[in-house]
Amino acid sequence: MRQLCFLLFLGLLWAGAAQSQPAFWRDRSGNPVVETESLKSKNGFGGFLVATTDADWEQKWSTPPETVPIFEEADVVPYGRKVYILSLFANPSMDDSGKAKVQCDIRVVDPNGKVALALKDQTCYSGRLSGKATNVYMSTQVMVFSGDPGDPAGTWSVEVNLLDANRDTELPLRTRFQLR
Questions:
Q1: pLDDT for position 29
Q2: Which of 59, 93, 176, 180 could form a cystine bridge with 166, CB 3.0-4.6 A?
Q3: pLDDT for 108-160, tens place per residue?
Q4: Is the dihedral of CA 152, 156, 159, 160 positive or negative?
Q5: What is the model's pLDDT at position 23?
Q6: Higher model confidence: residue 63 or residue 96?
Q7: Do strands 115-127 and 100-109 pair parallel, antiparallel, or not at all (unpaired)?
Q8: What is the distance in angstroms between the CA of the first residue and the CA of the last residue of the chain?
Q9: Burial class (CB in 10 A: 0-12, 13-18, 19+), 66
Q10: If DSSP states are collapsed to H, E and C, what string results for the chain?
Q11: Parallel, antiparallel or unpaired: strands 169-179 and 76-77
Q12: Could you give the domains of the chain?
């Protein structure tokens, strides 16, 4: 099984809007990480969407900042096994009172292209940050998926559009997993 390591936490850089700006996400060694459909940045705001089958994801996440959590990435998932969808973000802008405001739209799409879930304008984070803005934070919107008998087998897609409302910057993120 593939392992997903959050080495991206350790080397986060500030990034600007232009293509000539340095890479936002960096690995533990400081090397730029290629952005993907589940890992993006724009205007200094970073987002990361993870689908994991780790039932202990919350315990892994709730560790000291110097501890890098490792999650098992959802790839092929049997019916009945839970998939936890985690939206992560970094470097949101603060308003005049020092508060971040991150909104999100969420869509789950089945293998036939049918939208199984659609939520708009959800609050993913609102308030003061507990540390530096460049730390990685988890959205308050954690989804749990479990394929039931009768759900179509195949590739399921989860789309989360993160919006840094103070900066008016959107990051469309997507992750996928196979239900069998």
A1: 85
A2: 93
A3: 999 999 999 999 999 999 999 988 898 899 999 999 999 999 999 999 999 99
A4: positive
A5: 64
A6: 96
A7: antiparallel
A8: 16
A9: exposed
A10: CCEEECHHHHHCCCCCCCCCCCCCCECCCCCECCCECCEEEECCEEEEEEEECCCCHHHHHCCCCCCCCEEEECCEECCCCEEEEEEEEECCCECCCCCEEEEEEEEEECCCCCEEEEEEEEEEEEECCCCCCCCEEECCCCEEEECCCCCCCEEEEEEEEEEECCCCEEEEEEEEEEEC
A11: parallel
A12: 3-179 (2.60.40.3880)
Residue 19: both structure tokens together: 């293509």
Q: What is the token pair recorded at 84?
A: 């936890």
The share of the chain scoring above pLDDT 90, in percent, equals 72
